[in-house]
Amino acid sequence: xxxxxxxxxxxxxxxxxxxxxxxxxxxxxxxxxxxxxxxxxxxxxxxxxxxxxxxxxxxxxxxxxxxxxxxxxxxxxxxxxxxxxxxxxxxxxxxxxxxxxxxxxxxxxxxxxxxxxxxxxxxxxxxxxxxxxxxxxxxxxxxxxxxxxxxxxxxxxxxxxxxxxxxxxxxxxxxxxxxxxxxxxxxxxxxxxxxxxxxxxxxxxxxxxxxxxxxxxxxxxxxxxxxxxxxxxxxxxxxxxxxxxxxxxxxxxxxxxxxxxxxxxxxxxxxxxxxxxxxxxxxxxxxxxxxxxxxxxxxxxxxxxxxxxxxxxxxxxxxxxxxxxxxxxxxxxxxxxxxxxxxxxxxxxxxxxxxxxxxxxxxxxxxxxxxxxxxxxxxxxxxxxxxxxxxxxxxxxxxxxxxxxxxxxxxxxxxxxxxxxxxxxxxxxxxxxxxxxxxxxxxxxxx
Amino acid sequence: xxxxxxxxxxxxxxxxxxxxxxxxxxxxxxxxxxxxxxxxxxxxxxxxxxxxxxxxxxxxxxxxxxxxxxxxxxxxxxxxxxxxxxxxxxxxxxxxxxxxxxxxxxxxxxxxxxxxxxxxxxxxxxxxxxxxxxxxxxxxxxxxxxxxxxxxxxxxxxxxxxxxxxxxxxxxxxxxxxxxxxxxxx
Lengths: 447, 186
Description:
The complex is a heterodimer of chains A (about 450) and B (about 190). Chain A has about 450 residues and is mainly α. Chain A has a two-stranded antiparallel ribbon with strand order 1-2. Chain B has a domain of about 110 residues: Cytochrome Bc1 Complex, Chain D, domain 2 (Orthogonal Bundle), CATH 1.10.760.10. Chain B is about 40% helix and about 0% strand. Chain B has 8 helices and no strands. Chain B is elongated and about 90 Å long. At the A-B interface, α3 and α15 of A face α4 of B.
């Protein structure tokens, strides 16, 4: 990687043309200044509608370009202005490039070739369908000044309010507690003084009749003791049995993962299918922990979460989602500034949650593809889980229970048509359950 | 008074034992040697493998059993153009299963490209990923070869789907994409 970077630099000095996208931050500062100085005159070049431009930009350009960040192609903010000031390229050149970049490169245009080489020969898709007006709309959109980052004043103020609420609540509670203690002490003192008065006036305080204390009476009654012992034994047997039978059951297990991955955001809010990432659940025994290239399918483009999501993460879960995305980049070896893989990868040690004992066989594809069971049947409402946990007990009783209850879905499932016909005749039922298909055979899962 | 003290001690011990159970730790196992596999389990850690992870890539050049045709077109612009012009589906008309193609398309592609192929998937609508083109885009003019090449290697911001879909599944998806394209162009 370093080598190609070097060669780019050589290239730029040889041809004596600046590679303008190389030092983004410095460039943006400069450009921001230039832009501020020229804003009054530059916008009048050709009337474009920035609102329309935004729609066009989002549908046509945004797959490869962003406003302020290098992606598959260069950043586009103030594109027209920069090209004109730094390279003397006019609107005509931009039109040609957008409609047919390959043609422009072939024609031997110096800057066209330079930019083509800088982006490793990634050809820009031709957009012959864009009219002059469309292009000026898009350029008007790119000429808009960068929106000032909204200061996260809202959530901070809110949380401040929450804190003060908490403090006042605690104060009230504390005051009440002190009041209570004072009251109790006052009562004790009143009692003491009353007793003293009684003594002084020679009044005898009626003492209770001396009778056998209740525990002595209890011990003397042997039948009661027998009953109590039996009850105690039964109760402790119940609790001991309960404790023993939850050994090895990890229901509710919720380990801390090395990267905070929110199923709620991915599967819930964004509605990504479970099988998108856990694709091997369709075809193999394991449902598979997705390899990081699957994360990068989207996170190549999504390098930070939206501001709302970020605020929610910090306030509700104490998680900085953007930092978690950075962890992903570090693990997969993605250089977000250069938009390149560095090749330095680090495996992520995900903590396995659902783990059947070695003596039980379970096959995902059999349940997901053949039976068409929803993932949520066993894994629970994953789309609502901010932190993944084990929903089902995964005990044998739980498996058996489901096999007894679940009717075979014969509709649109040619796999079962014939055997269903035979077996439903044999058992004399309309609908077969998984159990009647052999779902209770020991050898199905233990061998 | 003494018995009260004893009861409190017993209760404290009991409570402290109960509080040891944490959700961030797995529960105790009864006879762990029956629970844990002797062989290497998927995703297990072991010094026997480079990097300490059981999950390794297959050796260079290894091929899966069964029907397998290597995909020899390269991941370059030229390769893309070559595929676009020459690559044809390996499915004949009886093998095309558009139900399955649709199902796979909706799982893997629809989230960005939209279930109708207009480039309006849920992620696009929520402005998470932008600029997903419709399949009827004239500038791209997709063909079965170019679709397959793109699924196999990815293109621009799109990643490769070669590890989520096998060869036959990829061609099913290609067929379904062409169907969506035809619908869009109507």
